[in-house]
3-deoxy-7-phosphoheptulonate synthase (Rhodopirellula maiorica SM1), 345 residues
Amino acid sequence: MIVILQSNVTEEQIDHVLQRIEALGLQHHLSRGTFRTIVGIIGDEEKLQSEPLHAIPGVAQVIPVLPPYKLASREAHPEPSIVDVSGVKIGNGHLGMIAGPCSVEDRDRMFRIAESVCESGANLFRGGAYKPRTSPYAFQGLGEAGLKLLREVGDKFNLPVVTEVTDPRLVELVSEHADMLQVGARNMQNFALLTEVGKSQRPVLLKRGMSATINDLLMCAEYILSQGNMNVVLCERGVKGFDSLTRNLFDVAAVPLIHNLSHLPVIVDPSHATGRPDLIPSCALAGLAAGADGVHIEVHDCPEEAKSDGPQALLPDQYRQLADQMKELAKLFGKTVSPLPEKMA
Ligand code: PEP
Ligand code: MN
């Protein structure tokens, strides 16, 4: 930690700053420049996290040397992590191909969509049984019946399933049926939910909040990791932009940026990032080219009948075409797509 003192700091104030540091059992190194005096603090930076050093008279700025997300950081874990979702690997050269409808819908349709995305090469099936909707009057998901249906579909195709959990009280139930728990953008900072999914041993797909910085996202991942669950995959799904021509603003630079800062795998979700089927393929490929460890795409066989997010769904044939391109690009980058598990546990 580096403390920069105000230009008009007094000798008494400097002494007081040094005393506060000593009282915490840490060492200091004072450096007097022509215009500014700075204090380097040597020792466990964590001891200082909760200390309001800014509030000490004479202090102008406090600059941490280490990031506040300790477990999520590259420093803590230099090698990229691999998250194993019931046999399907994501990260460090393993590509997650996640596809499915926005919501779990009727039975035949679910089997139909799963069969087609599976044939195209998807290795994780996704559908929401609990939907966090902007309007309380919109379709809220099939709930437990949807979870059971999703499990049945997963078992039929040996395809691990991922679904959203919206409430800490539902973590146990959703974990019984799903291979991976999604925490959606609207719940990224639901700390009670993050703590609960952290206690579960299911892998977690944590989506970036629509107004969240990368630092916010990594701090939320830290909540999960700090509970002992190290199986976290991050997802860039676009942030609020000013242009209404796209649903969100796809922040493709977030992918290499997160890879620089953290060992956790990062996937992209061009479906929610753009909201437009005509832009999804290019953005999926751009995400992969930027180093994404996976791509999530919403697919529906009849978007006009979809219970949610129909306008942004790709048709099964469109997904097949894109999946072929993604696999080619993955090969070029030396990435592999985990085959489906022989038999799921
Ligand atoms: C979803 O995945 O269907 C969803 C609601 O996404 P997000 O949380 O990114 O808005
Ligand atoms: Mn959706």
Q: What stands out?
A: The longest strand covers residues 94-100. Residues 102, 128, 184-186, 207, 237, 272 surround phosphoenolpyruvate (ligand 1) (CB under 6 Å). The first helix runs from residue 11 to 23. Residues 83-337 form a domain with the TIM Barrel fold (CATH 3.20.20.70).
